[in-house]
Design brief:
Elements lengths: L2 H34 L21 E10 L12 H4 L17 H21 L13 E5 L3 H14 L29 H20 L2 H10 L6 H4 L12 E3 L7 E3 L1 H18 L3 H4 L7 H19 L2 H7 L1 H11 L6 E6 L1 H10 L20 E8 L5 E9 L2 H6 L10 E4 L13 E2 H20 L1
Length: 448
């Protein structure tokens, strides 16, 4: 083979390899399109969607019910948490129950993400300075909820100086956000307790492995509380429910104790960059962290999501959400409360059961947002999307900047007995009726 032929052969080989690479790339792209489709509209295979937008629809209004972002544990080192383990807990940047520095940063990031989305949809102009009736930012009167709302608003409306509304004395619970029972009778307590038992007794009995994991992680048997007898082994058969007028549903037994530990460990995992340190020197998998979180998640479900309880404790917030959806001139509402608020509202609305992907908290993760968005279709009809928007566990730990390339988790919710159109949207009248039905159900139980 002469030199000219060799050059032609080499060029031919390069062209062949290039064409092979192009073919593989196109095949890969087409397969990805089948899985992901248009990144603005199509579902990811784990149930999430990649963006809040809906092509072909005009955004008219957004109402958000948010859980506060990362806080320190509800009780400090002088409580049971200080004696139930021989280890030192994470040194928090905030006082007990208050929003942490990380929580504030994460919430600002989420506010920025929503700002960019609302601007892209044309609902907000750039550097929006709303009129008083256009936007409402309303929080429960606890530090962690007011601060969450303030940080979110700093990201959402960075130049507007928008104030956070709270309705009662600082550091007290606003009745709108307090998941308390405002109606109780002997027959109601019997029926609600039986319903809780029917729905959750099997789940509580299945916590044996979770309790063993918790016990090992905190080295319970080496703790002061174990040695002085104030804490014993966690049991699955000692849970007792207390339902009293003008009080939040209560609980005694191992699940309550385990919830306190589970909550503190999960929060520590979000804050502590070293995973082994977060687990008190133990090597835990992500599934192990899910098992730890399952304890506190179940605690919340047991207390607040049985239908008879949910329509009772969520009644004020259901009214608030429906009122905001129908408030003349309102384009954006941010209501900031707690996981019990989101859990009870969704249960009262008869949400279909779900498990959030890429989150160790499966239902109402820290900083999570229940987003009602009102859209107008080209047919002139009004629709509402209902999504849970949340920072994934990795995004919480890594302080990830949220954008179109790295969006938060966006999980469309389904409701028993309601159907969406082909674009995943509910008729606005159907969602408003479901909210009204849940509100009316409270009147039903008070008359029985």
């Amino acid at each position: 083979m002469n030199k000219k032929d060799k050059i032609i052969s080499i060029i031919s080989l390069i062209i062949f390899l290039g064409l092979c690479g192009l073919f593989m790339y196109l095949s890969k792209t087409q397969n990805a399109a089948k899985i992901y489709g248009d990144p603005e509209t199509v579902s990811i295979t784990d149930g999430r969607i990649s963006a809040l937008s809906h092509e072909g629809y005009t955004l008219e209004q957004v109402v958000i019910l948010s859980r506060h972002n990362i806080r320190s544990p509800l009780s400090g080192g002088g409580s049971l948490l200080g004696t139930i383990t021989p280890h030192e807990w994470f040194e928090w940047s905030s006082e007990p129950s208050e929003l942490s520095v990380r929580g504030g940063v994460l919430e600002t990031m989420m506010g920025q993400y929503f700002r960019k989305w609302l601007e892209s949809e044309g609902l907000f102009p750039e550097n929006y300075h709303p009129e008083p009736e256009d936007v409402r930012i309303y929080a429960n009167s606890k530090q962690r909820t007011i601060a969450t709302a303030q940080f979110f608003t700093s990201g959402l409306l960075p130049t507007a100086g928008e104030e956070v509304e709270y309705a009662v004395e600082y550091d007290t619970m606003d009745p709108v956000f307090t998941p308390k029972l405002t109606y109780v009778s002997d027959s109601y307590v019997r029926a609600a307790t039986a319903q809780i038992d029917e729905l959750f007794s099997d789940d509580i009995n299945a916590l044996t492995d979770n309790y063993e994991l918790l016990t090992d992680v905190i080295d319970l048997h080496d703790s002061e509380a174990w040695k002085d007898g104030s804490v014993t082994d966690l049991a699955t058969d000692d849970t007792e429910i207390k339902l009293e007028l003008d009080a939040e549903p209560g609980m005694s037994g191992s699940l309550k104790t385990a919830c306190s530990v589970s909550d503190a460990l999960v929060l520590q995992y979000y804050e502590e960059s070293d995973e082994k340190t977060a687990a008190f020197g133990h090597d835990l998998t992500r599934d192990d962290w899910k098992k730890i979180s399952e304890v506190k998640d179940l605690y919340g479900d047991v207390l607040f999501t049985a239908p008879l309880v949910a329509v009772n404790v969520a009644n004020p917030l259901l009214k608030e959400i429906l009122s905001e959806l129908n408030e003349d001139g309102r384009v954006f509402t941010f209501l900031c409360g707690h996981d019990s608020n989101i859990g009870s509202v969704l249960a009262a609305m008869d949400v279909t059961d779900y498990v959030l992907p890429d989150s160790i908290e499966s239902k109402t993760p820290i900083g999570g947002k229940l987003v009602f968005a009102r859209w107008k279709g080209t047919d002139g009809a009004e629709y509402i999307s209902v999504d849970l928007v949340y920072q994934t566990t990795d995004q919480l730990r890594d302080l990830t900047i949220l954008n179109d390339d790295d969006p938060p988790g966006i999980y469309p919710l389904k409701f028993d007995g309601l159907n969406t159109n082909s674009d995943g949207l509910y008729a606005a009248a159907d969602i408003e009726k479901r909210l009204q039905d849940a509100i009316d159900e409270y009147d039903v139980i008070t008359k029985e």
